[in-house]
Amino acid sequence: MDKINIPKLRLYSQQVSGSGIKSAKELVNYMGAMQAQDFAMAKWAIGLRVPDLTEQKVEEAFNKGEILRTHLLRPTWHIVSSDDIYWMLDLTAYRIKNSLRTRHNELELTAKVLSKSNLIIEKSLLENGQLSREELVERLNAAKISTDKNRASHIFLNAELEGIICSGEIKKGKPAYALLGERVPVKKSFSRDESLTMLAKKYFGSRSPATIQDFTWWSGLPTSDVKTAVENIKQDLSSELINNKSYLVNNNSGKNVNEKETVFALAAFDEYIISYKDRSDLLPSDNIGKAIMKNGMFKATIVQNGQVVGIWNRTIKKENVIIKAEYFKKMNKTNLEEIEKVFTQYGKFLNKKPEVNHKL
């Protein structure tokens, strides 16, 4: 395999360069989990990969409980299918909780405080239905539980990891909190070995080619579990050695990818970039600091032929969306015209007219 094809194969595997997927739930189920601390951008990450999907349709999937936003895998927000949330929590929540012990001690969030908080949150949602973060914070404060200094975030995070809450319907542009047992009343249980196998299948099925180190980073699993997971699906994978680095390629991946010129506007924190520990195949070292901030923020990017060539941001108005695009290299007129077509797609997703400003 030629090294230059790695990005193109990933675009194909990730459903960016062509997709037969029909719905938000089907896409999220295929991807396994999609990082989602920037909720508005996370919706676009789904929309980009499903033909003719709109923001309204993505929000409908949230409102129906088909897809959910919670913390799992690594200690950050992810969107996950309702079919997968329980076993993914069972597989990864304990490691996240262990990693937070020191911070919880600093915040004086003892087991007693967290237990009391869980009871208040659960009781409030049982009695009132879905509530916003602000409404739940009011109830915690009324019970003399401190929520300042980022304590509220850790209290809600803990309740998610305990399988008590997850995202609910979208209210004022943000998901409310809901009881997980009400959103997904049927819990599917699997053995740890079965769960490891399913996670590896989802990862290498949707992100091939990738290395074992990439899977370890994405999953947050310990090395022993990663080895077991990969061993369990070895019949689905082939190994390719490129520049002394071993890539695992899903046998169902389209190795004869379309060689035509491609341009895409990816969301901030898009899985095309964040899924891999080593991003040098798609983002040259000279430009890493422009797309990935030192504070861990991943900017929205412009990808040309699999390579990150720029970044973009947007300001949403009542009828328009104003887009500012900045490039890492010189772009010709044809390039810019293709990029504007991509942002036309984004405008259709939002049901707004795009206005693109290029910083050359």
Give a description of the structure:
The chain has 360 residues and is α+β, with helices and mostly antiparallel strands. The chain has two domains: 18-183, no CATH class; 263-359, no CATH class. It is 45% helix and 20% strand. It has 16 helices and twelve strands. It has helices at 5-13, 24-31, 39-47, 55-63, 85-99, 101-106, 111-128, 133-142, 151-161, 180-183, 192-207, 212-219, 223-232, 271-274, 285-291, 333-350, and strands spanning 34-35, 67-72, 76-81, 165-171, 174-179, 237-242, 245-250, 263-266, 300-304, 307-316, 320-327, 353-359. A hairpin with a 2-residue loop joins strand 6 and strand 7. The two termini are 34 Å apart.
How many extended strands?
A: 12
Count of domains = 2
Oligomerization category of the chains in this entry: single chain
Radius of gyration: 21 Å
User: Unreliable stretches, pLDDT < 50, 5 or more residues?
Assistant: none
* Distance between the amino and carboxyl termini: 34 Å
Largest sheet: 5 strands, mixed
β-strand percent reads: 15-25%
What's this entry about, in short?
With 360 residues, the protein is of the alpha+beta class.
Search tags:
360 residues; 16 helices; alpha+beta
Q: Mind sketching the topology for me?
A:
Layout: H1 5-13, H2 24-31, E1 34-35, H3 39-47, H4 55-63, E2 67-72, E3 76-81, H5 85-99, H6 101-106, H7 111-128, H8 133-142, H9 151-161, E4 165-171, E5 174-179, H10 180-183, H11 192-207, H12 212-219, H13 223-232, E6 237-242, E7 245-250, E8 263-266, H14 271-274, H15 285-291, E9 300-304, E10 307-316, E11 320-327, H16 333-350, E12 353-359
Parallel strand pairs: 11-12
Antiparallel strand pairs: 1-3, 2-3, 4-5, 6-7, 8-9, 9-10, 10-11
Helix pairs in contact: 5-11, 7-9, 11-13
